[in-house]
Amino acid sequence: MVTTVTSLGRSGLSDWLIQRVSAFVMTAYLIFIVGYLVMNPELTYAQWAQLNQALPMRMFSLLTILSIAAHAWIGMWCVLTDYVTVRLVGPKATAIRIVFQLGMIAITLLYVIWAIDILWGIQVNG
Question: What is the pTM of this model?
């Protein structure tokens, strides 16, 4: 059995499953938000803030953020391993791919931390 350096012990089946579950979570979130906006055509800021301060909504939003991060990581990993490796051969390809992957990890982590800060950060009134 051949294991690639970047697989981190995961199988293709687990990546496929994570992609499908994360897509389901993102779709459910989108349907909920669109449904909420359609059901509340005269939505005020106070109503919107109340919805987003509720613990179940914060948890749903956090789950969606983590799903987006996982979905993006697996998608970008596939693209980088398929296309960077195909165009370039040898250690140069590996080095370039690793730089791109580290960049993707950094950006994804930054966005997740930023989103968590927005969701769970200190609320300032006024």
Answer: 0.80
